[in-house]
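Revision sheet: structure tokens.
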Amino acid sequence: MQLVQKNILLAITGGIAAYKTPDLVRKLKAEGANVRVILTQSAMHFVSSLSLQAVSGEKVSTDLLNEEAELGMGHIELARWADIMLVAPATANTIAKLSSGFADDLLGTVVLATKAPILVAPAMNQQMWAAKVTHQNCLKLADLGMKLIGPASGEQACGDVGYGRMLEPEELVLEVIKHSSMKDTPKLLKGKRITITAGPTREAIDPVRYISNHSSGKMGYALAETAVKMGAYVTLVSGPVTLKAPKQCNLIKVESAEEMLEAVLNDIDRADFFIACAAVADYRVDNIATQKMKKNKDDALQLKLVQNPDILKTVASLPRPPFTLGFAAETENVVNYARKKLTTKKLNMIAANDVSNPELGFNSEQNALIVLTRENERKLGQASKHSLSLELLKMMETEYRFQNKTNNLQDAVK
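Predicted:
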């Protein structure tokens, strides 16, 4: 449970996606959160206050003036109570009103009165989402410090297909967890320089084909985002992914393992830490065809593969290497293989994960890690990749200080 004793204020507005909110409340409470609900008048056409009260265990708030609230000012009480406010679904009308600071109902007044971070989950027809005025209103929300989460693309209630669907309840919960873990992120890496690799590499066969793997880059990008929030200067060397990098980091896009190595070495002299989170292809084609390869008569194709450079080992073997944190994605003997990798490559730390579990690792929003150093072993249980990134970076910083202190003592003895 990752939201224990967090006060989540859920504001539900009048979109068809409101029918999913009882499930959303259940999932938030399953993570340990206290949940209270604001239900707008239009939302009451799609979901009942009784059902939300049953799943939340709290009275649902619908009116601006509440005689039962502290001093009769329910909006102030709710605004002070909330640790995080989530507006889901947020209709086009709601987004327009919030962007202009309207305070003609309970939702609008709470938004103006709260100091809590506000997450907004848009939900509307795809054409309404694409409208220029909606785009402008969303930019205003961002300028006001609110964070938009979603929308997703897919089939809509009206029959259209496109962007405008509210994220699913489990995705919204992960966003709340992510924001909660980042809210009070310690600045343990302030001023430090970190180079992180993320995503897969693609090794060309011919101009249209390549060898790659299932890495989504989510763990590496989560580490980059968290490191930025912890005060670090981050260089993110990324293989081809569909993720958006943090604005504050230096993003370098690459395709192949050789390109990734070159990009890493160009920056590594200034780095205090190197985190090798990318799933680098072990092999590449020896001779890449300059034209698209055609089928041959015997239906057989032979490719000669040669080993790619080992980026992590190369960095760890430098005369003055940064603190090196590697990843080991394994399907069996996870700890044994990871410890061997830690030793043979002379790493400072390694994080191992079992990618045979479809709920963890590649393409998943969650992961579980076993973190090894030369002396210690610690398990980080299943959690969102953003939550794990914070714990892992805190461990890395602690180990960095410990190893530096040990090395300094050894130098003093000499």
